[in-house]
Amino acid sequence: MNTYVGPERRHGHADGNRRGAPVGHDALSISIRPHPAGLRAEVGGEGTLENTIASWQLIVDHVRRHDARGVLLVDRMTGPALSAEQWRALVEAMEGQGLERVRIAHAKPNGLQEVEYCEIYALEAGIDARVFEDERLADLWLRHPER
User: Where is the composition biased (Basic and acidic residues) (predicted)?
Assistant: First the structure.
């Protein structure tokens, strides 16, 4: 399993041009592949609420299809940080989708911004999630849960 969704696929373009999204749309790229703890997803592009929800919808689809128990998300999205209200909207959009049974390590190598709100709201929703700036620490936490 290896999934790549670039701007051309997300927006219906079949010309193979992965350099940018059509006018009026924000670019999104996502690669999902197996990881020893479940799945590794790497996302990039504009860090809008729309793109963040779209990437999580794809991740949830893979979690379901592969019965993954863990997700290492390497978030390389750029742009302004999502607000606390937008992080809450994301978590609310994902509630009941099956993430409650999945351990999630969210690595933000470009800086944490205000992502701690997402961790707080996820924990309130019963989702086992932690946010890290370092991918190696995220991977370690995901592979070796506290007992």
Answer: 7-18
Please give the Cα distance from 23 to 14 (Å, whole number): 16
What's the whole-model pTM score? 0.79
Asked whether 22 and 7 are in contact (CB, 8 A), the reply is yes
Contact 23, 54 (CB under 8 A): no
Count Cβ atoms within 10 A of the Cβ of residue 24 and give its class: 0-12 exposed, 13-18 middle, 19 or more buried.
exposed
Cβ contacts of residue 96 below 8 Å, gap of 6+?
none
Helix (H) or strand (E) segment spanning residue 43: strand 38-46
Q: For position 114, what pLDDT does the model report?
A: 65
Tokens representing 3 are 């999934």
pLDDT tens for residues 89-113? 988 899 899 999 999 999 987 776 6
The confidence band for 52, taking pLDDT boundaries of 50, 70 and 90, is very high
Q: What integer is the mean pLDDT of 11-33?
A: 55
Q: In what order do the strands lie in the sheet with 128-132?
A: 3-5, 28-35, 38-46, 70-78, 103-107, 128-132
Collapsing DSSP states into helix, strand and coil, what is residue 135? helix
Strands (DSSP E) along the chain, which ranges? 3-5, 28-35, 38-46, 70-78, 103-107, 128-132
